[in-house]
Amino acid sequence: MKKKHIDECVRDCLETYFNDLGDVEPTAMYEMIQRVVERPLLEVVMRHAQDNQSRAAQWLGINRNTLRRKLLDHKLTK
C-alpha cells in the first residue's frame, strides 16, 4: 500500500466532495473546511501529545491559550 501525503488525501477528499455535489455549486467552502478539519486535528494532536497542552500547542504552532480556547470550543477538555 502506497503511503499518501496529507495534501494528496485532502485533494482526493475535495475531488470526491465536488463529484458528490454534481451540478450544485458549493458555498463558504473555506470556512467549512476549517470547521471540519480543526476538531480531528486537535483530537489527534492531543492524543499524540498525551494531552500535554504545551507540547500540542508547540506542535501546532499556536499559543497555549489559543489551544485551550479551541479545545473548549470543541468540547475536547476533560
Description:
- This protein has helices at 6-21, 29-48, 53-60, 64-73.
- The chain is globular, with a radius of gyration of 15 Å.
- The protein starts with 5 loop residues before the first helix and ends in a 5-residue tail after the last helix.
- By secondary structure, the chain is mainly α.
- The mean pLDDT is 94.
- Helix 2 crosses helix 3 (53-60).
**How much helix, percentage-wise, in residues?**
55-70%
Helices and strands, in order, run as HHHH
Number of β-strand runs: 0
What is the percentage of strand-forming residues?
A: under 5%
Radius of gyration: 15 Å
What descriptive keywords fit this protein?
78 residues, mainly alpha
Reconstruct the topology from this structure.
Layout: H1 6-21, H2 29-48, H3 53-60, H4 64-73
Helix pairs in contact: 2-3, 3-4
Describe the structure in brief.
The protein has 78 residues and is an all-alpha fold.
